[in-house]
Amino acid sequence: MRRRIASTSAAIAVAALALALAGCASSGDGSSHEGHGTGSSAESSSGASAADVMFASAMIPHHEQAVEMADIVLAKPGLDPRVVELATRIRDAQAPEIATMEGWLEAWGADAESHAGMEHGDDGMLSDDELAALEAADGAEASRLFLEGMIAHHEGAVAMAEQQLADGTDPDALALAESIVATQQAEIDEMQALLDEG
User: Could you give all domains of the chain from N- to C-terminal order, each with its CATH number?
Assistant: First the structure.
């Protein structure tokens, strides 16, 4: 049931993001990654498109929460070693990607804060209550909550990355989106297998 809800939520996130992008899409092809500018509009003067800016601006806080979730669960004793390895891998992969995307926004002359409050639907982000439950849990319960929460979280990220692949133009942002789809879908399968083992 949780997986069906998460998949539906990811679909809603894609639809909402598509609407948001349609409202701010540019008329240029935005194919150039040369000549980083200093403009502050969604369409940067470097050639990065509104979709590229939206992708990085939305994915940064998404990754930040994944790192937070990993840090929470890694602080707990008595975890399944496979959960420890997975949480460590997620944290170690996504923390550098945050820095990369922040660098892009700066180089593009884009203002991430202008998109910070935009809602794109349910993108798999955990609520404050869900984070608090993860904080309070121990052992097997913490592992279960982490896996369930991270599956939904990853499904949201995959949906966001697929939207970037459909609408984005920046080669580096497209490459990251491809990597997110491949890596996080594999991790979803891995986490679901761990949950199925009970």
Answer: 2-16+54-197 (1.20.1260.10)
